[in-house]
Amino acid sequence: MVYDIAIKDVELTEPGDGTLFNIGINGSTIGYVGTDPVEGKTVLDGRDHLAVPGWVNAHTHVAMTLFRSYADDMALMDWLQNRIWPLEARLDGRAVYWGSLLGIGEMIRTGTTCFADMYFFMEETAKAAADSGIRAVLSRGLTGSSPEDGAARLEENTQLYKTWNGAQNGRITVMFGPHAPYTCSPDYLKTVIARARELGAEIHMHLAETAGEVADCLKQYGKSPIALMEELGMFEGGTLAAHCVHVDEADQDILARHGVRVAHNPQSNLKLASGIAPVASMLKKGITVGLGTDGASSNNNLDMLEEVRLAAMLAKTQSGDPKAVPASQALAMGTWMGAKAVGLKDTGKLEVGQKADIVLYNMDSPAWYPRHDRTSLLVYAASSADVDTVLVDGNILLRKGELTTIDLEKVTAEVGQCLKEMTASAE
Ligand SMILES: CSC[C@H]1O[C@@H](n2cnc3c(O)ncnc32)[C@H](O)[C@@H]1O
Ligand SMILES: [Zn+2]
After folding, report:
1. For residue 67, which atom of ligand 1 is closest to its CA?
2. What does the alpha-carbon distance between residue 295 and residue 193 come to, in Å, rounded to a whole number?
3. Distance (Å, rounded) from C-alpha 229 to C-alpha 236?
């Protein structure tokens, strides 16, 4: 048969011995992976390229590209309260659209095919995801000292869900996004949980990011953030918990028992000096752990290969065991486990029936030689500059390193203009 797209003579990480494979794509789905010849209306030459599932960025605030290099070398609460929140108060939809498109362009160029986001003006991020072709799991960031205080924001999240969940051939899905235990009162969280439950939606929340958050929560409620969310019933629906840096054995057991999925953000956690999440321990308990960049103002880029590499390295140093989080596990966390973490079942693997979210790495640079182990080369040696081709949902979004759906020159100009207006309105 003739596929819509055929990728010919490409290498895979499994078996990783240099065997040349052919991939056939029909519409948005992978229809064939094997060594038989395939024909396609569009043919991509895969020689000297490695095909891998696209990275899943399991936690970000994509429009925060607007604030990259704006406030560095600070701890989380100082950074948020004194630099970020005052500027975010002046955001508008236009800035979020262009900031989102800038981040999406950066993610596609570095091999990310899906991202889970929590922010303001999420209609605009949804439009940017729709326009660019990337896969997205979106939530409106929610804060509220009481149900009344946070009601309008909850309505916005509800509207976002009704308009965008399942949109664009299922490429965009929506969760509810209560920000954190220190910005949402328990009563407000109860209303958010009830609304999510009513609609069958999942929840995306920052949890146990810093030692201070845990200490304050213990002081105020007599429980850790994880135990408090369990008590509020949050974990009875699906939950994506971002960070989980300060989770003790009891917290981890709660996460495991309820099937809570974790987004580990190693670079942001290091830069904000929040700590190192006990990833090896959580994985041992059977917790699904995906990887995220967090926003570009605390990372400071959206390059998932850096997170994959860092997750492997940190786990080894933290546990004193070089076998902790081997390359294959880091690759899994960046791909199929990340997809599972953000609630997607049909992406993250190069298998028949999965969505055609595929990245081709060009292996002609010195870092790809010799080829003892292709997974090791990708995780420990490759560069994101090697990303050559990116497909999402069977559409080509990057070809020979060039974005096909985003005009970066226009995007950077628009971002500059938005920032000028934002800072002028502050004077
Ligand atoms: C209410 S929308 C999301 C909200 O989260 C802020 N944010 C960005 N990075 C972090 C982080 O690491 N921990 C907690 N909150 C973070 C972002 O600036 C928005 O205000
Ligand atoms: Zn975050």
Report:
1. 18
2. 25
3. 10
- The pLDDT tens digits for 254-287 are 999 999 999 999 999 999 999 999 999 999 999 9
3-state class of 267 per DSSP?
Answer: helix
Query: Ligand 1 centroid vs 242 CA: distance in angstroms?
Result: 11
For residue 315, which amino acid is it?
A
216 plus 176 within the same structural domain: yes
Order of strands, edge to edge, in the sheet holding 135-142?
55-60, 112-119, 135-142, 172-178, 203-207, 239-243, 261-264, 289-291
Buried b (16+ CB within 10 A) or exposed e, 70-87: ebeebebeebbeebbeeb
Phi and psi angles of residue 44, each rounded to the nearest 5 degrees, phi first: -105, 125
Q: Which of 64, 65, 87, 179 to mutate to test the pocket of ligand 1 (most atoms within 8 A of CB)?
A: 179
If you search the block for the tokens 């991509």, which residue do you land on?
Answer: 44
Look up residue 154 and give its amino acid.
Answer: L
Assign residue 381 the CATH number of its domain: 2.30.40.10
347 lies in some domain? no
Q: Are residues 44 and 59 in the same domain?
A: no
Residue 256's contacts (CB-CB under 8 Å, 6 or more residues apart) are 282, 285, 286, 287
The ipTM, to two decimals, is: 0.99
Task: Tell me the residue range of the domain where 156 lies.
Answer: 53-340
**DSSP 8-state class, residue 239:** E
120 lines ligand 1 (CB under 6 A): yes
Q: What is the tens place of the pLDDT at every residue in 355-398?
A: 999 999 999 999 999 999 999 999 999 999 999 999 999 999 99
